[in-house]
Amino acid sequence: MTNMFNKPPKGSEYVMEHLKQEILSGKYKPGEKLPTVVQFAARYQVGRSTIREALSALKAIGMLHIQHGGGTYVADSLSQSKTQQNVIQLFSQTIELREILEVRQYIEAGCAHYAAIRRTDEDLERLWRILTTMQQHLSDEIESEQADIDFHLTLAHASHNSLFIAMMESIATRLKESMRDTRKLWFFADQNTAEALYEEHLQIYNAIAQQNTTQTALLITDHLQKVNQVILRLTP
């Protein structure tokens, strides 16, 4: 199997590629429900997290859709050319995404710094509610994505700096569009999981709750730089 980053494939990459070929060959039909994570883990002799990573990657390129509490299904309309087109389209947007991330890094580091200083109990409560929603909807792409956006915008409000808030709200539409694509890149290129993304947000929350300004700014910067590093690898 060819690996796009020229490094030995992880178990999840092997599983992803094998399942992709089985789907394209017709073993699993469009709209068909796939075996459970537990069944796949037993079949491939790997951990459940490895299977979840592989399924997340296939979802990112449009081959699967996952229903919260309802299982994983092959996309209704599927072809090799369409799958390749989804990947190419995703990668072609990396230059614009990189520019947005560069702006976000500077704005959100400032938001995080002052949020750690000025956050109120109400701010912490709002952030915690968002994290709870994110955790409860790890397999629900729409709900999880909205919780991700809400977290970053609420973080700006917790800075209690009207200019930071205005800057984040002014790019809210671009933020939503870019976050959808960066989440796909996160899951596809680095085989990360929704659980890992949630844990990063939880660490940011904990640093804000402890009013650790240095740690909060470092965590939010690192969070955004991880996606930026993926984008740099994918940009010609």
What does this structure look like?
- It is a single chain.
- The protein is mainly alpha-helical.
- It folds into two domains: 11-78, Arc Repressor Mutant, subunit A, CATH 1.10.10; 93-234, Four Helix Bundle (Hemerythrin (Met), subunit A) (Up-down Bundle).
- The protein contains eleven helices and two strands.
- It has helices at residues 11-25, 37-44, 48-60, 80-92, 94-118, 121-136, 141-158, 162-170, 172-189, 194-209, 213-234; strands spanning 64-67, 71-74.
- A two-stranded antiparallel ribbon has the order 1-2.
Topology summary:
Layout: H1 11-25, H2 37-44, H3 48-60, E1 64-67, E2 71-74, H4 80-92, H5 94-118, H6 121-136, H7 141-158, H8 162-170, H9 172-189, H10 194-209, H11 213-234
Antiparallel strand pairs: 1-2
CATH topology of the largest domain: Four Helix Bundle (Hemerythrin (Met), subunit A)
Strand order of the largest sheet: 1-2
Mean pLDDT: 80
**What are the segments in which pLDDT stays under 50 over at least 5 consecutive residues?**
1-8, 80-92
CATH superfamily of the largest domain: GntR ligand-binding domain-like
Strand content: under 5%
Second CATH tier, the architecture of the largest domain: Up-down Bundle
